[in-house]
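Whiteboard transcription, Tuesday session. T.W. wrote the structure tokens on the left side:
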């Protein structure tokens, strides 16, 4: 897992209010924020969170969006 904080100057919106590809990107932003919180030491990942990151990465690949650089240990 990367221990660096990622910055996203992209406007966040609710994924439900977007077309599929943009919705997936919004989910990716939320997942990146969670990983940032983990890197900052303010959040502890659960097995469900790890699976959610994997699911978001799978949706990213399907939508043609680069997945998050995340390696669960």
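and on the right, the sequence the group agreed on:
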């Amino acid at each position: 897992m990367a221990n660096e904080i990622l910055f996203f100057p992209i406007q966040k919106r609710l994924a439900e209010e977007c077309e599929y590809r943009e919705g997936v990107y919004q989910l990716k932003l939320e997942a990146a924020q969670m990983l940032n919180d983990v890197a900052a030491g303010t959040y502890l990942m659960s097995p469900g969170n790890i699976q959610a990151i994997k699911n978001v990465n799978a949706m990213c690949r399907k939508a043609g969006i680069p997945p998050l650089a995340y390696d669960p240990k």
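Someone added at the bottom: The radius of gyration is 12 Å.
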